[in-house]
């Protein structure tokens, strides 16, 4: 969800500007983990409203609606590391993706327990163990790495081109 449906990098930049007065250009964080790129990232993700107010990734709602009609779609998001995120992610999904039922939402700890046909994620740690087809959603933290066996997609239009 984070970095694929929800634009958490915009949130990090917004919080960092408000917190430290720093405005980082997108290129400045390429190749860095979120923790390396944003000094107070742990504080931000534990702040009420961080996940609830995250912008939606452009094109994600429309493409997800199409995917939901064509596939058996589940949203799987790690939510246990940051306890406030559990409820906020659920509310965020209800608000922005109302066509998904509560039964399609899996808020969990580790994604290693997830099995299926296709996984779209922005972290190698979630894709590398997955037994099905994998799509790597480009984000600054993964842009400098070879996608390997994963198909790299840089936008929701590219996701649609691969899956629809």
Automatic annotation (TrEMBL):
Active site per the UniProt annotation: 2 (proton donor)
Superkingdom of the source species: Bacteria
GO MF entry, a single one: 5'-nucleotidase activity
InterPro entries: 5'(3')-deoxyribonucleotidase (IPR010708), HAD-like_sf (IPR036412), HAD_sf (IPR023214)
Protein's UniProt name: 5'(3')-deoxyribonucleotidase
Region forming the signal peptide: none
GO biological process, one term: pyrimidine deoxyribonucleotide catabolic process
Similarity-based family: Belongs to the 5'(3')-deoxyribonucleotidase family.
Species the sequence originates in: Niabella drilacis (strain DSM 25811 / CCM 8410 / CCUG 62505 / LMG 26954 / E90)
């Amino acid at each position: 969800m984070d970095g694929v449906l929800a634009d958490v990098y915009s949130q990090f930049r917004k919080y960092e500007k408000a917190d430290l007065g720093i405005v980082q250009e997108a290129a400045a964080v390429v190749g860095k983990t979120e923790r390396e790129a944003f000094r107070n990232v742990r504080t931000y993700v534990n702040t009420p409203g961080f996940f609830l107010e995250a912008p939606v990734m452009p094109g994600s709602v429309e493409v997800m609606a199409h995917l939901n009609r064509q596939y058996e779609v589940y949203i799987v998001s790690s939510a246990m590391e940051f306890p406030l995120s559990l409820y906020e992610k659920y509310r965020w999904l209800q608000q922005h993706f109302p066509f998904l039922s509560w039964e399609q939402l899996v808020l969990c700890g580790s994604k290693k327990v997830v099995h299926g046909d296709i996984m779209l994620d922005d972290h190698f740690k979630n894709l590398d163990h997955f037994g099905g087809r994998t799509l790597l959603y480009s984000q600054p933290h993964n842009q400098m790495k070879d996608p390997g066996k994963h198909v790299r997609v840089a936008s929701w239009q590219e996701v649609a081109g691969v899956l629809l």
